[in-house]
Amino acid sequence: MNKKVRTNIIPAQHEFAKIPEKHELHLKAICVFSAIGFFLNRDTYWKDKIVLPGASNNTLTAEGVLVDSTPYFNWHYTPRSISFNQALDKYIDVFETIVKEQTEGKQVILPLSGGLDSRTQALALKRCNAKVKSYSYDFKGGFKESKIAEQIANACDFEFQKYQIQKGYLWNCIDTLSELNHCFSDFTAPRQMAVYDQFDTMGDVFSLGHWGDVLFDSMNISNCSETEELQIIKTKLIKRGGMEIASRLWDVWGLQGTFDAYFTSRLSELLNNIKIDNSNAKLRAFKSMYWAPRWTSVNLSVFQSKHPIRLPYYDNRMCEFICEIPEDYLKNRKLQIAYIRSKSPKLANITWQDQRPFHLNNYQYNKYPYNVPYRGLNKLKRMFNGLTGKPYIQRNWELQFCGAENMSELESRLRNTSFNSWIPEQVITTYINAFKNGQQLENAHALNMLLVLSQFDKHTNE
After folding, report:
1. pTM beyond 0.85
2. 165, 171, 133: which is closest to 149 by C-alpha?
3. Does domain 84-216+293-365 sit in CATH 3.40.50.620?
């Protein structure tokens, strides 16, 4: 008997299907994965296995073979003729309705950051009288994001716990993580694995703020040609060093043509299928169709393995709402900021991490000359820490890859007979040596992706 599968507009997890192709590695798709950090569209590691697209009704056989896939929603830009205050009232109504429905009667677990998305959730949960346990973490030797998060929790009268991301934690949990995310993303991005065991006793359900920053902002570009849109999204997608590692693997595997030509063609086709005239709305739709489900959603599995997850910004009603809001109301986080300022002056006066040391009432002063004193002092602190052997940590891979012990762990996973029969040891050596010789920023992404591929190889051959 056939099976029906309906996917959300932005799926929170992958739904797989089989298609009539050879069961062999999809090397071109793996090259794209290596360049951008996630698989594009329906691609997986295998030619005969795909991911069902978002916003679709699908029919599968009992064996999981795809029979039919039909979209029930298309991203669009149909702005309503409403004032900003009307849009704000509608946003508050939709957002708070979703949050209340998702969390009512539950002990809510709320990850807090110094940004806006979790702050809007904190406000909505507070206004819904939810029972909340919140937490935050920051990097050892990095910016103390948890200080801002704790202020937000205190303003809402939430329980709060802070953690610190420790050096080298990845090697004790990499096998668990690769089983959870199926090697569909890198392993240093989901820093929640550092506190994975702490989730057990926190509460009943996670309330997660993923994707609010994309839906409620704009790329602030003028309407442009299809060629210009293609170049913008291509630039956004390619990681530092991504084009190089993808092209290197393309050549090693003897694929026809060039990686750049293939990748450009794939992106062009996907963009052309989005029938939206406004460039900002079109690129937001592209990211919501391909970036959110294939990258952001991948590591939601870490949370979901412990407790059910709820994502108000993933809700279909929120996606439909966004399509009807004038672009000018979305850019620069206007609606979210207005929500917080109007409903909680206390939250609005807490530092906005992206605009530090400013908050939601004065962030417009984060420019010369008003921000010179803070930037100057911050630079001096970093210089002093560097001189005293305490470098400023901004990225998780710095804690997981840097140092002799970390490098030993990394090399032990990249240098093995099985993996090196697929990706030559010479390629591995090139990136490891470059990283050791000080070119860390340029080669961290490549090592990240090679580590993922090595774990995939390990699981495939077990």
Report:
1. yes
2. 133
3. yes
Tokens matching residue 113: 């950051």
pLDDT 10s digits, 233-288:
999 999 999 999 999 999 999 999 999 999 999 999 999 999 999 999 999 999 99
Give the other-Cβ count within 10 Å of 25's Cβ.
Answer: 15
pLDDT score recorded for residue 378: 73
Q: Which residue in 22, 49, 313 sits closest to 182, CA to CA? A: 49
Q: In whole angstroms, how far apart are CA 417 and each of 322, 328, 343, 460?
A: 50, 55, 60, 14
Q: Which amino acid is at 227?
A: T
User: % helix / strand / coil in the chain, to the nearest 5?
Assistant: 55, 10, 35
Domain ranges of the chain: 3-71, 84-216+293-365, 372-460
Query: Helical H runs in 157-216?
Result: 174-181, 212-215
Q: Tell me which amino acid residue 99 is.
A: V
Long-range contacts of 42-48 (CB under 8 A, 24+ apart): 44/16, 44/184, 45/183, 45/456, 47/21, 47/22, 47/23, 48/18, 48/19, 48/20, 48/21, 48/22, 48/23, 48/24
CA distance 246 to 63: 34
- From residue 330, alpha-carbon distances to 17, 314, 326, 348 in Å are 36, 17, 7, 18
- Three-state DSSP at 52 gives coil
Dihedral pair phi/psi, residue 187, rounded to 5°: -105, -10
**Which residues fall within 8 angstroms of residue 384, CB to CB, at 6 or more apart?**
none
Contacts of 330 (CB under 8 A, 6+ apart): 215, 216, 217, 218, 322
Q: List residues bridging with 69 in a β-sheet.
A: 58
* pLDDT at 151 exceeding the cut of 70: yes
Taking alpha carbons only, the member of 266, 300, 308 closest to residue 286 is: 266
Dihedral sign computed on CA atoms, order 381, 383, 388, 394 = positive
Instruction: Give yes or no for residue 139 having a pLDDT over 90.
Output: no
